[in-house]
Amino acid sequence: MALLTKAPRGTQDILPKDSYQWRFLETVAMETAALFGFKEIRTPTFEHTELFHRSVGDTTDVVQKEMYTFTDKGNRSITLKPEGTAGAVRAAVEHGLLADALPLKVSYLTSCFRYEKPQAGRLREFHQFGVEMLGSQSPAADAEVIGLAYEIFKVLQVQNLTLELNSIGCPQCRPKYHQALKAYFEGHKDELCETCLSRLETNPMRILDCKSPVCSEIAKGAPVVLDFICDECREHFEGVKTRLDKMGIAYTVNPHIVRGLDYYTKTVFEFVTSQIGAQGTVCGGGRYDGLVEELGGAKTPGLGFAMGLERLLLLLAAQQNELPEPRACELYIASIGDAANIKAGELCARLRDEGFYVECDTMGRSVKAQMKYANKIGAKMSMVLGDSELESGKAQLKDMDTGESSPVELGEELTRRLYDAGLARATSELSDQIGDADILRLLGQQE
Ligand code: ATP
Ligand code: MG
Q1: Residues 261, 386: one domain?
Q2: Which residue, by CA, sits nearest to atom 28 of ligand 1?
Q3: Relative to the alpha carbon of 116, which ligand is closest?
Q4: Residue 308 Cβ < 6 Å to ligand 1
Q5: 425 or 433, greater pLDDT
Q6: pTM (predicted TM-score)
Q7: Domain of 295?
Q8: CB atoms < 10 A from the CB of 58, how many?
């Protein structure tokens, strides 16, 4: 196919027939986060490259191999964001948000860019829903953040997703673990891949995350970090587990999770599934108590998670979870002749003001062709306006399902009939947040 009509490798168009699923996921995620007090933050699509070197870390795959980095016309090194945390934390520091009441809780939806080998559940532009919670050291914060991810999956009725939990310690206990890891991997020096050989010197924990089959086999026998964490980290981890237990959130401790980004400390977690192939991590997150300081802010603990929306959709599809479809057209107003077409447009404007989804002819088609279109878009009701309807101010309102028609006046009565048919979205609610009520409606749990 010609270059012009093909999207770049690893990217994906989200077409009108599917976009409602995205909108639904995004709404559920953002609205559920709002119930926990998270407010949306929007940060730029690109940042100074240095930001990711500092936060994500120089020895990670993301920084070493996956970033979309370029020099702009002002000779700055710029990188399309490979993840959302760095930008959110940078913004919090830049705008002094950490001087306000803590904790700071922010949520976001964003595109992320990583130069990876495209496959199912792995793209070069993908989408994340994420949250960051800054200011609390308490395990209560960890439980809240994990609880939020859990709640979102619950609302979406996701099954077969396991929460895996680990603690990877802090700068106090990490060096001892690094030593043990180094000693272990030294013994396998001839087998490790080249990248891991350099990791052995710079950051041996990264070897545990290597995707090469040989390295990951060796990694299975490596000492586990949980055996090395200090008393404070252990106590913190116990605090997280106790809270999750009480909240009824099941988890398994997986001492092999280390996560792919350098900034993590203490708690790390993943929600994983075996239902969508090799890329089974739908959500990953953890604590990053050193990150704010690393980015030039005052020492402030924090944590967060990000879920990959492509993987979440794959999982929902694999489980045949039907997401609520968007509203279909409620009324199609067909017309014969110019005067009737103008009247149809006028009625459409009025009814849309009321919150109804109505359409009329904009193609100059015959009535027959207009009705064919009305059928195609699944209109629930229809009417045909011609000279006599204009004169009498009445038309036949047809129920497209049953085929039954009855006369209706084109004024107030028409509006009332549409309301009576239960079609309207209450306009007063529109000015409210499109919030809980809407989610419930979408989920079919009508009040
Ligand atoms: P993986 O081990 O699968 O490469 P990761 O550790 O690099 O994941 P994170 O940086 O933690 O991933 O990103 C959080 C979430 O974003 C992942 O759990 C996943 O759902 C999603 N994600 C990461 N990279 C991609 C990608 N290239 N394509 C689609 N989704 C992705
Ligand atoms: Mg990755």
Answers
A1: no
A2: 122
A3: 1
A4: yes
A5: 425
A6: 0.91
A7: 16-173+229-318
A8: 12
Sequence-separated (6 or more) residues with CB below 8 Å from residue 154: none
Residues 365 and 264 in one domain: no
Tens-digit pLDDT profile for residues 6-64: 999 999 999 999 999 999 999 999 999 999 999 999 999 999 999 999 999 988 889 99
**Domain assignment present for 444:** no
Q: Are 341 and 390 in contact (CB under 8 A)?
A: no
For ligand 1, whether the C-beta of 126 sits within 6 Å is: yes
CATH number at residue 362: 3.40.50.800
Confidence of residue 429 (pLDDT cuts 50, 70, 90): very low
> Does 306 contact ligand 1 (Cβ within 6 A)?
yes
> Is any atom of ligand 1 closer than 6 Å to the C-beta of 310?
yes
Residue 119 DSSP symbol: B
Contact present, 235 and 132 (Cβ < 8 Å)? no
Q: Are residues 239 and 375 in the same domain?
A: no
The two three-digit tokens of residue 150, written as one number: 């859990």
Give the number of the ligand closest to the Cα of residue 259.
1
Give the position, in ligand 1's atom list, of the atom nearest the Cα of 279.
3
Does residue 3 fall inside a structural domain? no
Q: Is 283 in the pocket of ligand 1 (CB under 6 A)?
A: yes
Domain with residue 234: its CATH number is 3.30.930.10
Whether residue 285 is contained in a domain is answered as yes
243 and 158 in one domain?
yes
- 7 is a domain residue: no
**Is residue 365 helix, strand or coil?**
coil
Spacing, Cα 322 to ligand 1 middle (Å) = 24
Indicate whether 82 and 121 sit together in one domain.
Answer: yes
Helix (H, G, I), strand (E, B) or coil at 324: coil
Q: Are residues 233 and 382 in the same domain?
A: no
State whether the beta carbon of 38 lies less than 6 angstroms from ligand 1. no
Q: Are residues 273 and 392 in the same domain?
A: no
Q: Which residues contact 206 (CB under 8 A, 6 or more apart)?
A: 59, 60, 61, 196, 199, 258
Number of separate domains in the chain: 2
CA distances from 137 to 157, 237, 354 (A): 31, 12, 49
Same domain? For 239 and 342 the reply is no
Q: What is the DSSP secondary-structure string of 149-198?
A: HHHHHHHTT--S-EEEEEE---TTTHHHHHHHHHHHHHTTTTTS-HHHHH
Ligand 1 atom nearest 309 alpha carbon? 20
Distance (angstroms) between ligand 2 centre and the Cα of 327 equals 37
